[in-house]
Amino acid sequence: MGSIEVGCFGATYLRISRDKGENEDTLQNHREIMTEFCRQNGYTYEMYEEIVSGGKYDLGERPQLQQLLQNIEQYKAIFTVSLDRLARNGVISQQIKQVCIDHEIKIITPSQTFDLCNSLEDRVLYDVSSMFAVMEYEMIGRRNKYNRMQRARRGEYVSGKPAFGYRRNETTSKLEIYEPEAEVVRYIFKLHSEGLGKQKIADILNSEGYKTQRQRSFQPSTVKAIINNPVYKGCLVLHDRKYTKENGEYTFKVVDTIITDDAHPAIIAPDEWEQAKRERAERGAKAAALREKATVKTGTTMLKDLLYCGICGGKLFVTKERNGKYLIKPCEYLLPDSGEKCGNHGMRLILLEEEVLCKLQAHRERLRQGLLHIQQQDALHLLPGFRKHREHTEQQMEEVQQLQSELEELAGTGIFGDEEIGVQANRLLRLEHALQEMKEKVLQQIQKLESSGVEEMEGILDMLDQFPNQTPEDQNQTLKQFIRRIDYKRRLPEEIKALSANNRERLKSPFSYTIEYW
Q1: 467-473, long-range: CB within 8 Å, 24+ apart, which pairs?
Q2: Strand pairing of 307-309 and 483-489?
Q3: Own/partner pairs for 31-39, CB < 8 Å, 24+ apart?
Q4: Resolvase/invertase-type recombinase catalytic domain spans which residues (predicted)?
Q5: How many Cβ atoms are within 10 Å of 516's Cβ, its own excluded?
Q6: Are strands 326-328 and 347-348 parallel, antiparallel or unpaired?
């Protein structure tokens, strides 16, 4: 391990994670430890602090660490309490390592100095320590998750803010009925049992002055969530989710569900809740049948199921007039704060479709330019960190193999005893295994990154090339492959609203929209 001169200027990095139960006291302790450590050794420094999980995959979610690495040329060393403060994620650990090698920066903790540029042993020790940090992070996560699941099985509430109508007892950790809101919940189920739908129930609640927990107006989605929630029959449900990649995007997937009956007092009797569930299923089946009939009658438009209100976020619908023209219906949802109707006006669908087609042409050109850039720059600029790390790892493996050969020669000279030779041989063997494992992980990362992005872009370009010749039904399916939603907004002044629907000035009234891609 290399030494560093007294008085050198470095960067001190401090990090805590609230997810692991750390708080400002922990940060203050670390601050005092590093301040005293630097004072005793004569180091000067610039301080970087942040409260964020060390397991983050994206360096952009670590703004202070990102800033430190951008300013790395100003420093001789990075000072930190321990390596796991820098990162508990293998990708970011390797990014930090490569920056330190490229700029000859040492990482110094109160108990260890890592000279990553000049010492093979330090590089391997850093990799191994980083692997242990990742393993510890995963173990802590599993332990916390197991603890939450066990508490849920005991009927304790561990899922954030309690549902409307309940409060969490801080002593028992169980839910208790909050009567002012529970009365509203019972009223909602009563209205539902009388055959009213979520929109009508929301209108009644708002007209009678009821508010949500956040003191906002009731939306149909809020009513639906209350009716669907088994918490009101005394049942506690906890989903164990795993962050995984499916169909090219990351999402949380439910891998296990804990259901605890009679976990807390019920606001709605279980048999009454189950009856409401059956009624919901019957109404849903009838609504689905009606929707299918409507689709057959009106046909499928290019933007079906993609339109959303740019004011309140509610879903927008399209209707077909007798003359065969399609219209975007005005938004009928209520604004959360005022309880008034949204006021987003509709218009002829073809006007928006024409605008979307123009934007798709521009999007196609951007994709072509982006794909061309990737193809031209791939050999020089993509994945430099991982590829260079692979080269370093292979070089380290060669060095270890050379040391093993030299050790065999020394064993034949008799200068060193068998015990000492055995200790060194085992040490080199462990280093070799650690390097081999690290190389395999790096190769996996390279393979993933090399195969990501390009194929998806090429697929979208192929779909856009075929788009003009497709039927509206096929166009709709194509758009849903890469467009998540289109937010449409059109507010009409009072004097324009007073004009007839076919008035030229009203028809030309402007609108705006944004496209959100997957």
Answers
A1: 467/360, 472/299, 472/300, 472/301, 472/302, 473/299, 473/300
A2: parallel
A3: 33/81, 33/110, 34/79, 34/80, 34/81, 34/110, 37/79, 37/110, 38/12, 38/79
A4: 9-155
A5: 11
A6: antiparallel
Q: Return the structure tokens found at 88.
A: 């508990």
Distance CA 493, CA 506 (A): 10
- Say if CB 393 and CB 438 are below 8 A apart: yes
Backbone φ and ψ of 326, nearest 5°: -95, 145
Per-residue confidence of the chain (518 residues) as pLDDT tens digits? Answer: 445 666 789 999 999 886 666 778 888 999 999 999 999 999 999 999 999 876 666 778 889 999 999 999 999 999 999 988 898 877 788 889 999 999 999 999 998 899 998 888 888 888 877 777 777 776 777 777 788 888 889 999 987 889 999 999 999 999 999 999 999 999 999 999 999 988 889 889 988 999 998 888 888 889 999 999 999 999 998 887 776 666 666 566 777 788 999 999 999 999 999 999 999 888 878 766 655 554 545 678 899 889 999 888 888 988 888 888 899 999 888 776 666 778 898 999 999 999 999 988 888 888 887 767 655 544 334 455 666 667 777 777 787 777 777 767 766 666 556 776 776 777 777 777 777 777 776 676 666 555 545 656 777 888 888 888 888 888 988 898 888 899 999 988 888 888 887 788 888 888 999 998 87
What b/e string do you get for 122-133 counting C-beta neighbours within 10 Å, with b at 16 or more? bbbbbbbbbbeb
User: Among candidates 25, 23, 24, 15, which has minimal Cα distance to 55?
Assistant: 15
- Least Cα distance to 325 among 351, 305, 343, 359 occurs for 351
The residue assigned the tokens 């569930």 is 277
Residue with tokens 């009644």: 204
Query: What are phi and psi for residue 509, nearest 5 degrees?
Result: -60, 135
* Continuous segment of H or E residues that includes residue 146: helix 120-153
Q: Which of 181, 63, 131, 102 is nearest to 385 (CA)?
A: 102
The sign one gets for the Cα dihedral 151, 152, 155, 157 is positive
Structure tokens at 207: 């007209």
Which DSSP symbol is given to 367? H
C-alpha distances in Å from residue 220, one per residue of 71, 137, 146, 294, 345: 51, 41, 35, 22, 20
DSSP notation for 417-445: -HHHHHHHHHHHHHHHHHHHHHHHHHHHH
